[in-house]
Amino acid sequence: MEERTTRKGPGFRLDSGDGQKAMSKDLQERIETFAKLLFKSRYPVFFTGAGISTESGLPDFRGPDGLWTRRDKGLPPKPGRPWDAVEPNSGHMALAELQRIGKLKFLISQNVDNLHLKSGIRPDLLAELHGNLTKLRCSRCDKTYDQSSEKTSCPCGGTLTSSVVNFGQALPERDLSLSYEHSRKSDLFVVVGSSLVVTPAADMPREALRGEAQLIILNAGDTPFDSYAHLRFREKIGEVLPPAVQRLKVLMDVK
User: Fold this and answer.
1) CATH for 121
2) Span 44-95, pLDDT tens digits
3) Strand residue runs (E) in 89-134
4) Which pairing describes strands 106-109 and 126-128: parallel, antiparallel, or unpaired?
5) Is CB count within 10 Å lower at the N or C end of the chain?
6) Structural domains of the chain, count
7) Is 130 a known active-site residue?
8) Of 92, 130, 182, 230, which residue is the catalytic one?
């Protein structure tokens, strides 16, 4: 009988058995290093891309079957689940757990799927650089409203339109400014599920490195920053982030 993993909440535990360990020794060592870097960090900042949501059933962009990969091959997008039916996965919940234990100073996301807010991330700790499918944004003051509010105008007099940023459009000023600010403050910058090729979002790890932050990258595909990473994971995010958070909680002696 092989040793296996049993998932529970954002983390997992190893059940005993008489076979090989459920994860490689190399992966265990890297997860341990990840947890220790988080433990020592005073200002950890996370950056997420479409890759964190693939385990919820949403497509990424540049993966082997991603939206842009299929487009470049002349193929239509693969049919998937409706956006509003998708739920946060263990990677999203691990970030929410980091927030709960005080180890998430800020979260920058390229995603528009609303899964970070669904998972419990506080809006004041989140910059959604490309907007949010469930939000409307004021054209004058940049304030956002839930689409369900059915508002058409803002008290400031501005009109409300979709908050999703399309190609060629400017990124929301507040979110972009906060992203630069927190990237520069970070001493540990963790990229989760992004190819880091879309600017200005991809400027953030560069800003963190300029401030001498350590860089961790969790992404299946290559990124332009791989040679600068202090720690690199190509495994599934659900196999790395939840156990790293669980190990961090042991180091912190929190439940």
Assistant:
1) 3.40.50.1220
2) 999 999 999 999 988 754 444 444 343 444 555 555 667 678 899 999 999 9
3) 106-109, 126-128
4) parallel
5) C
6) 2
7) yes
8) 130
Domain extent for 155: 133-164
Closest CA to 193 of 107, 77, 118: 107
Give yes or no: residues 124 and 56 share one domain.
yes
pLDDT of the residue at 7: 33
Q: Would the pLDDT of 221 be above 50?
A: yes
Question: How far, in Å, CA of 77 to CA of 234, rounded?
Answer: 24
Q: How many CA atoms lie within 13 A of 134 on its CB side?
A: 14
- CB-based contact 188:214 (threshold 8 Å): yes
CA pair distance 196, 218, nearest whole angstrom: 11
CA distance 24 to 30: 10
**Whether 182 and 146 share a structural domain:** no
Whether residue 118 sits in one domain with residue 46:
yes
Q: How confident is the model at residue 210 (pLDDT cuts 50, 70, 90)?
A: very high
pLDDT at 79: 53
- Could you give the CA distance from residue 207 to residue 137 in angstroms, rounded to a whole number? 27
- The amino acid that residue 195 corresponds to is S
- If asked whether residues 139 and 180 sit together in one domain, one would say no
Structure tokens at 149: 């509010």
